[in-house]
Known about the structure:
- It is a single chain.
- The protein contains 1 helix and 10 strands; from the N terminus they run βββββββββαβ.
- The termini are far apart.
- The chain is mostly beta strands.
- Strand 4 (32-38) and strand 5 (45-50) form a beta hairpin.
Amino acid sequence: VRFVESGGGLVQPGGSLRLSCAASGFTFSSYLMSWFRQAPGRERELVATISVGGRTLYLAEPVKGRFTIARDNAKNTVSLQMNSLKPEDAAVYYCNRAPVAQYGGSWGQGTRVTVSE
């Protein structure tokens, strides 16, 4: 099981980024998928979860209305479109199978998002 996250970078407040996660080593279309983030000095937190069919199952309250999770089962990828970014969104973002306690695989390297002027 492997996850490779990409798409992070430096963006100004109010800007947008689209993160992507390439998954391999398992039958991607059979699993819920989630995005997580970990800010410095804080625990990793769940950001969004998507069903096998592409329905959003969960969005953390701080990101509702700004972030969108999507998946492409043909390409084994899950994405996170992040709009109206705020400094508090700065973190390293990771993807994994969901629920992670039951189905989580080894964490990838993550992709860092920095939101600053």
